[in-house]
């Protein structure tokens, strides 16, 4: 069976340096403007924990801080379990690359929390918005130039697509869209982490102005277990993203991802810098 292109981008190799140390390689297929797609970097972080021999449970929270752009080429990942309790486990993760002097430079820091889930009372207090099904919405076929990762996804905007006129006339920051891998791939936690970061900067929509912007930090909360993700399979997810406050060069945006059946799978919040 041919390996999916996303799995190639997440390929990590154990090293003999220490437990939890991996090496990887950036993927041109998921390249952004100045480095890898941030969602792919988040997925790599999560993958290092999921492949760690001491893993307990499944992910419930992931925070990724983008300290510097990862350059094209090899990188190192170190995942460390800093505390293991009866049902939760706390991790720190760092991605480094060799700098000009040859010394390792930190590009990414992260924390991950995994847990053993148990059956309890459950309720979805954030129902999926009523929207046309993915088959009734046209696929987005045009994206920013030089952004390869967009071509790896089937995105079908319902509302709030990338502005077609950059005239400063924006009046809201909400996007609703259906999405999935362009080449079918069963949903798992790394893919869900990547999809939580695939919304273009809210400031573009709110201002209708293509200002420079980039994620500084993103936190994703996973509300589904592996069995629920398996039920989604290769189906679409409905994503919603909205900005909340734009001020002094930074803004935050929240996002949610539901299955076609209406199950809330993940929520995320991120802080993003922007320039005039």
From TrEMBL:
Domain Acyl-CoA thioesterase-like N-terminal HotDog: start-end pairs: 28-112
Pfam families: 4HBT_3, 4HBT_3C
Residue ranges constituting the Acyl-CoA thioesterase-like C-terminal domain according to the UniProt record: 142-273
InterPro entries: ACOT8-like_C, Acyl-CoA_hotdog, HotDog_dom_sf, TesB_ACOT8-like_N
Protein name: Thioesterase family protein
């Amino acid at each position: 069976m041919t390996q999916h292109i996303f799995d190639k981008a997440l390929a990590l190799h154990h090293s003999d340096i220490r437990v939890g140390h991996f090496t990887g390689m950036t993927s041109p297929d998921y390249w952004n403007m100045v480095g890898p797609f941030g969602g792919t970097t988040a997925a790599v972080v999560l993958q290092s924990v999921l492949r760690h021999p001491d893993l307990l449970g499944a992910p419930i929270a992931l925070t990724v801080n983008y300290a510097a752009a990862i350059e094209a080429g090899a990188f190192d990942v170190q995942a460390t379990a800093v505390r293991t309790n009866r049902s939760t486990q706390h991790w720190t993760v760092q991605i480094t690359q060799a700098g000009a002097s040859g010394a390792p430079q930190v590009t990414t820091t992260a924390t991950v929390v995994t847990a053993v889930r148990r059956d309890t009372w459950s309720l979805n207090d954030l129902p999926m918005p009523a929207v046309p099904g993915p088959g009734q919405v046209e696929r987005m076929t045009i994206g920013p130039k030089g952004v390869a990762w967009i071509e790896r996804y089937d995105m079908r905007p319902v509302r709030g697509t990338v502005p077609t006129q950059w005239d400063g006339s924006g009046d809201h920051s909400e996007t609703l869209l259906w999405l999935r891998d362009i080449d079918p791939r069963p949903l798992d936690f790394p893919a869900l982490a990547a999809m939580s970061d695939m919304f273009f900067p809210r400031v573009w929509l709110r201002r209708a102005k293509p200002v420079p912007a980039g994620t500084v930090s993103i936190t994703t909360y996973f509300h589904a277990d592996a069995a629920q993700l398996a039920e989604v399979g290769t189906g679409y997810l409905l994503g919603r993203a909205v900005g909340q406050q734009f001020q002094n060069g930074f803004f935050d945006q929240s996002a949610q991802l539901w299955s076609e059946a209406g199950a809330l799978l993940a929520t995320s919040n991120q802080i993003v810098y922007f320039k005039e």
